[in-house]
Amino acid sequence: MDNDNLTAVTEFILLGFSGLGTYQVPLFWGVLFVYMITLLGNLLIITITLLDSALSTPMYFFLRQLSMLEIFYTTTIVPRMLSDLLSSHPVISIASCFTQMYFFILFGIAECCLLSVMAYDRYAAICRPLHYASLMNRQVCMGMMGVSYVMGITAGTSNALLIFTLPFHGSNIVHNFFCDNLPVLRLASADTFWAELGNLAFTLLFIVTPFTLIVFSYVRILITILGLASAQGRQKVFSTCSSHLIVVTLFYGSAAIAYVRLGGKANKDMDQILSLFYTVVTPMFNPFIYTLRNKEVMGALRRKLTKHF
């Protein structure tokens, strides 16, 4: 039958974790707990880096921006997910699905770019310390942050439009708990070749390119570290990069595993667990990584607590 004679889809059913039955309620409380920890932890980092003058360097400016992105990123997904976990009919309109996908891609790509900017900041501080002040002045930092958001907006707009300009007829069941691009694209009634090609191009440009810049920055940092005479000096330099390396590994590692599985015919329950990890759980770790492993942030936190209590 011709697609034009079929009823157009006006809403999607987010299948999510509906198969869990009564276990959806414990999952609701678990996700809510993780979300609250994510919000509180990242708000703490934002507050500390704003109030403490010792944390006014470019490194902490970017850390504050990362915490803001983590809040936006998780808020795009979690409130809707919590509502659906308590609903017997979790549906989302086409317009709401477009909006969620747009902001999810926007903040995700902006974070990819920001992580590469943070790697460059460490490269400039360690490999070119004499030029660091000019390389990473306020205007440059603001410009890099602006470019990260522009990249996110470009990727979000282009990717979402490529998918939602396709016709949707027949099945409207999304095998995920949010409007991710690949599960929604699979429901399109027309040929998805160009949309898939566009998705691949966006992946290479907005995800692989920032990751390549991160790897290049750390290769240069590693060469510099190995050239230091003292073991204590090497350890001190490496400790300034370890938190960022852990965050990059968690972010790219979990997302890469999830999307490799989504690209194939893998177990859908496992796909959703992986999606839950990189969209909800991973952002919770970042405040712990950047506070517990960072002496300057811990010192600033102690100073504020001592002052007020």
Shape: globular
Q: What is the first-to-last residue Cα distance?
A: 72 Å
- Topology pattern, helix = H, strand = E: EHHEHHHEHHHHH
Overall mean pLDDT stands at 86
Which secondary-structure class do the elements indicate? mainly alpha
Strand order of the largest sheet: 2-1-3
Please report the number of helical segments: 10
- What fraction strand? under 5%
- The amount of helix comes to over 70%
Can you count the beta strands? 3
Radius of gyration: 21 Å
Major sheet details: 3 strands, mixed
List low-confidence stretches: none
Notes on the structure:
There is one protein chain. This protein is mainly α and 309 residues long. 75% of the residues lie in helices and 3% in strands. It has helices at 24-51, 58-85, 94-127, 132-135, 138-164, 181-185, 193-226, 231-262, 268-292, 295-308; strands at residues 11-14, 91-93, 173-174. A three-stranded mixed beta sheet has the order 2-1-3. The model has no long low-confidence stretch (mean pLDDT 86).
Question: What attributes characterize this protein structure?
Answer:
globular; mainly alpha; three-stranded mixed beta sheet; single chain; 309 residues; 10 helices
